[in-house]
Amino acid sequence: MPPIVTGSIITSIGLHLCFISYGQITTSPFDTYMSVATAGSIMLISVYAPTNAMRRISLLLGTIIGYGIHAICGSKNIGPSINYSGIVSSPWFRAPEINYQIEFDSQSIGMVLPILVVFLAENLGHMKAIQSIITTGPPMLKYIGRAYLGDALGCLIASVGGTIPFTTYAENIGVLSVTQVFSPLVILFAAIFAVLLGFFAKFSAIVKSIPSGVLGGVTLVLYSLIVITGIRIWVVNKIDFNDTRNVFIGGVPVILATVMQTPLVLGNFQLDGIGVATFLSIILYQLLRGFDEWKQCFSDIRRSFRN
């Protein structure tokens, strides 16, 4: 995909997800204060921490600070207390429940297949976004086939295990941007560690106990970084917004993704704001080629038939 389309998709993802942060931040006035404290802590640590190691874990440190402030305020009756009942009642270790009942439904398969186009475009956009952050190393698009294969295998394993398929999460782009850690080996160990943590029921309960306001502050920072990553793609590739075509491709999908919080329903088929923005970016890029490009396109088609 060209940079104007990729930037539009990534920016749309970030802005669409920002409404999740907004909902968490505005749950109550106290949650708003906690969001400000958490997001402020993350940003201050990222800029003023004395060591690079502290800057790279600013998200974790900011979350801990926000959680601690919320716990102290709750104990002093300044705000609502954190519910620790789940942490106390959960066992230390618990194996995840796996449902092996596999069923093939042609109607469900037909509904999911069109969504693959969105996932493919979204995954490619993620790869280009990461490439815009990384300044050294081989081109990321060289490994796009591996990324698609990894997604496919992950969805297959998840489906066999009885859960829903999944896709790459744009939040991780924000994490990479903050930590500046891009080593595949480090990410592999982090993934293994995350899987092992899934067997610790206490840890899952602690994560679930994180208040809405604290989560809102963390996600606000992450989603903002995703938006900036999309804009950076436009800037790095010097997109000319004096060109009306680029204005429409970069503007209309982004606005729709921002305001569209209810899925578009077409029969049994649903698309959220990200999906609509992805489809629309690709379609607009093809439709708004201009006379010269369409002539060249038809010329290439005729030449291919003659050969």
TrEMBL record:
Main location: membrane
Keyword field: Membrane, Transmembrane, Transmembrane helix, Transport
GO function term, MF aspect, one: xanthine transmembrane transporter activity
Cellular localisation: Membrane
Keyword Transport: yes
Record's bilayer topology term: Multi-pass membrane protein
Parts of the chain that traverse the membrane: 33-51, 148-169, 181-201, 213-235, 271-288
Pfam families reported in the protein's UniProt record: Xan_ur_permease (PF00860)
GO cellular component, one term: plasma membrane
Family affiliation: Belongs to the nucleobase:cation symporter-2 (NCS2) (TC 2.A.40) family.
Official protein name in the record: Uncharacterized protein
Organism the protein comes from: Mucor saturninus
